[in-house]
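Worked example 2:
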Amino acid sequence: MYSKAFIPYRGYYSSPFARWQGSLQHENSIELGAATAKRWLTAKGLNAGIFEYLFLGKTIGQLHSFYAAPWAAALLGAGHIAGCHVPQACSTSTTCIGQAAAGLETGLYENVFCLMTDRASNGPFTVWPNPPGPGGSVITENWMMDNFAADPWGGVAMIQTAENVVQKAGGITKADCDALTVRRYEQYQDALAGGRAFQKRYLFGVEYRKDKKETGLLDADEGVYPTTREGLARLKPVVEGGVHSFGTQTHPADGNCGVILCTREKARELGAGQGVEIQVVSYGYARAPKAHMAEAPVPAAAMALRKAGIGIKDVKAVKTHNPFAANDLYFAHEMDIDPMSMNNYGCSLVYGHPQGPTGGRAVIEMIEELVLLGGGWGLFTGCAAGDTGAALVVKVS
């Protein structure tokens, strides 16, 4: 359990998420993430010189990734600090925040910035030497599509890992997945009510290049499609005999987010006032059985709750990374909670999954939901490549 890790109120932002091959498809995610965070800090009247360390969460390869975190720190305006590059697939944000909290707990630093960014669009095509190959022919890899299609250990596509959990658990139908996805779309619509009042609590527009002379501003999510029960019912399962159609799984996206972690005293100094205190309390992790990725959020959440000294019934807000609808149905069944009450105001199933910043945006939304509820415990959990999962418990007072 962490006792020294705090997040200033409104000491965080998320960019809108752009659809795959959309507005942000040509941007280097390191440069774009640093530029967006720098603009956000300037808008808040803060200087990156206050930070002592940077965690850069990025999973998808980009040009100059060799220099990743130190380069991002310099672009951010903090060229004096060191940093660590965390590529942890879908658990990247969770791990960045958890590691930052651990460093605060040990006194390694007192003020740290977590910048999470990725661009799923135009992922790299890598070429690997293959001396034993015929004529020395190389090995090629489409970073996005090849790795989504097959885990080198599990041997199956990611969607199959979710279907494996459905088969193992039993009782989850396509109609269940359709109904949950419609509910998640309705919850996202709540975030758009009142002129997008909820999203405006944390979303920060991202500037991107339209061409050599013109700059655009993405200030709302791009790639969210209208969802109805009737429309989903017409879609066939992707895997024969499965329960997930293309409408009940997430889609690749682009975006970034940032979170300040610091001591309680610094959080009070940097926060937006209003007497709100945000504490990162615990971190949990897990690995599910081979090719059963959707199981991992359950033991990861149980570990985080146990370390926080609370139970699931003590939690006011639950957020998940849910690349497949069955993830939430399985989690809710195992934790004995209502699946329709989770993920208020949005989730990756609806607005997309840029990998690195996905969990960070969910944690930020969870914090803002808890503020509206007058405080309480929040739990974020989600799966990640390799049948793993990670979770965070946060307390808002």
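The two ends are 17 Å apart (CA to CA). The first strand starts at residue 6 and ends at 7.
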